[in-house]
Amino acid sequence: MGRGRDKRDNEADLSAGPGPVSRHANGGAVGAARHLGPLRGMPIWLKAVTGVVALVLVAAIAFAGFWFIRLQGNISKAPLNAGGESTEAPGNDATGRLQILILGSDTRDGKNSEYGTADDSTGYGKSDVMMLMDISEDNKRVNVISFPRDLLVDIPDCKDRKTKTDYPARTGVMINEAMSEAGIGCAVDTVNKLTGMQVDHFMMADFNAVKELSNAVGGVDVCISDAVYDPDSRLRLPAGTSSVQGEMALAFLRARHAYADGGDLGRIKAQQSFLSSLTRKIKDEGTLSDPAKMLKIADVVTQNLTVDDGLASVPALLTIGNRLKDIDISKVAFVAVPTTPAPVDPNRLVIAEPAGAQLFSALRKNVDLTDPTAPATPSPSETATPSAAPTETAPPVPKYNKAIQPVTVANGSGVNGRAQELVQALVAGGFTQTGQFLAQPVAKTAVYYGNGFGDVAADVAALLGVPATLMIPAPAVTGVQVYVGSDFTSGTAYGAGGGAAAALPSDIVNQTAGDKVCQQANPDLIVR
To answer: How far apart are CA 359 and CA 474, in angstroms?
Structure first.
């Protein structure tokens, strides 16, 4: 009874109205409700704005988080090198000069199976495209150097980081085979050896990346002189300018027989004109400053991209994009490595000297290829203060044997018998393993030397009175090569007036990103 009565009394108390609680009416809320006090006096419109802002912030954070996780998850990575030791300290991606090796893989795995069987691309696949992108430290210039896939080069010792398998060095191998056994890092080491430069990063894409990227930007304008059909690549285009995307964009880049004489150099020019057009479109449409467009492109690219460990993050890729967005397209130079048919096989190519060594030397010296007469900007390594000599004296290095050093004389002077005269001087100076041949005429004499022959080159140059400024490293040269120009037509001592560096060929730049170039069609494939 008592307990029931208490319950009813309590219910009556709860329904009795304000009662004593009214004493706190002016004292704010009671208990947990007290924390809402400031909001009770807030105008309705301000509450609404606060709620909307909070919602937007949460949505923005969630959106950014989603895209960061998505893009990060898209990225595939591989080691930068395959055993080659770095000769330079790592550069600063945001502020330093940067070299990025861009590769197109011919793998037929996954989405690429329609272009052939897995047997068509063994191991890691071959590099269907190889370009070295060189970004200047001041972000005012970009050089894009193309290497023909038929170019014969020396591939250094490489190690597959996954299988721990060692692959010995090879000589006279097509450059597109460099990554097929030991991976992308071996292609990087090969380019380092060939150019004497230091690649900082690589980016490798497959066939599918080209199709999806061209779709993402809404097509890329290309031009060809005549209507053409290439059954091998499936390229079919009318004469003049066309917008290509998807399969046709890939066919334009893959086609080899459709252009000029049907060789790889014509294909390189087509690839360069495609990239030039793509660059103009992205710049003209403000894509690099449009977050929505950039996200779309980034999603497409990262799904089909393999990069080195240093680039395997969204912030690292954004850093590269930010450096490129404001560059003047007239300062984006597309260059093909100078080549000539290989003596052993006219269907293969070798570096044409002295033009090849001159190009690599100009790149190392940071010369503006669009204006070679402009003063070169020295790299940090060239301007650094020499370090102090070690406190301990290093053991003396044994003097090399002059009699077994390979030294050749290339006669580009235009004077018959000129090489023989200099060979006699070299033999008299102790360099008895000599050779000579007739070469393309050049204006300036230079002494080129391969890896490990710098000291030999210095002695050869001193013997002939050639200044040190005309000594040029050329990894493709075996030993030392004295390339005699029209400034050294007589005598065995180079004159006092020849101190300038060897000039670049006037046609070294195929085009800039600002040039609209129409490809010449192969007459055999023109549609009449």
So the answer is: 10
Entry pTM = 0.71
Q: Give the integer Cα–Cα distance in Å for 502 and 369.
A: 14
| Nearest in space to 335 (alpha carbons), one of 132, 127, 522 | 132
Spatial separation of the C-alpha atoms in residues 252 and 145, rounded to whole Å: 19
Residue 526's pLDDT is what? 93
DSSP 3-state of 447 = strand
**Contact status, residue 173 vs residue 155, Cβ threshold 8 Å:** yes
The Cβ of residue 259 has, within 10 Å, a number of other Cβ atoms equal to: 26
Give the pair of three-digit tokens for residue 447.
Answer: 């002494």
Q: Which H/E stretch holds residue 291?
A: helix 291-303
Please state, in angstroms and rounded to a whole number, the distance separating the CA atoms of residues 129 and 131. Answer: 7
Instruction: Look at residue 120 in the predicted model and tell me its pLDDT.
Output: 54
Answer whether the bond into residue 395 is a cis peptide, omega within 30°.
no
Q: Any idea what the Cα angle at residue 324 is, between residues 271 and 367, rounded to 5°?
A: 75
Let me know how long the chain is.
Answer: 528
Q: Which residues contact 126 (CB under 8 A, 6 or more apart)?
A: 105, 106, 149, 176, 177, 179, 180
Asked if residue 203 lies in contact with residue 103, where contact means CB atoms within 8 angstroms, the answer is yes
CA distances from 342 to 173, 285, 346, 492 (A): 12, 44, 5, 31
Write the CB contacts of 385 (distance below 8 Å, at least 6 apart in sequence).
Answer: none
- Mention every residue, 6+ apart, whose C-beta is less than 8 A from residue 418: 411, 484, 489
Q: Which helix (H) or strand (E) holds 484?
A: strand 480-484
- Residues sharing a CB contact under 8 Å with residue 204, sequence separation 6 or more, in sequence order: 78, 102, 103, 104, 105, 127, 184, 305, 306, 307
Residues with Cβ < 8 Å from 206, sequence gap 6 or more?
104, 105, 107, 111, 112, 304
Alpha carbon 256 to chain centroid distance?
22
Measured between alpha carbons, how far is 22 from 12 in angstroms, rounded to an integer?
17
> Which ranges constitute the DSSP H helices of 109-235?
178-182, 184-195, 207-216
Does residue 129 sit in helix, strand or coil?
Answer: strand
Residue ranges for the chain with pLDDT beneath 70: 1-42, 45-71, 84-90, 107-123, 375-398, 496-503
Q: Which two tokens stand for residue 41?
A: 């006096």
Q: How far is CA 101 from CA 31, 144, 258, 387, in A?
A: 67, 9, 26, 31
SS3 (DSSP) at 477: coil
Residues 6+ apart with CB under 8 A from 105: 121, 124, 125, 126, 127, 128, 204, 205, 206, 207
- pLDDT of the residue at 45: 61
Assigned token pair, 358: 């001159």
The 3-state DSSP class for residue 404 equals: helix
For residue 452, the surrounding DSSP H or E stretch is none
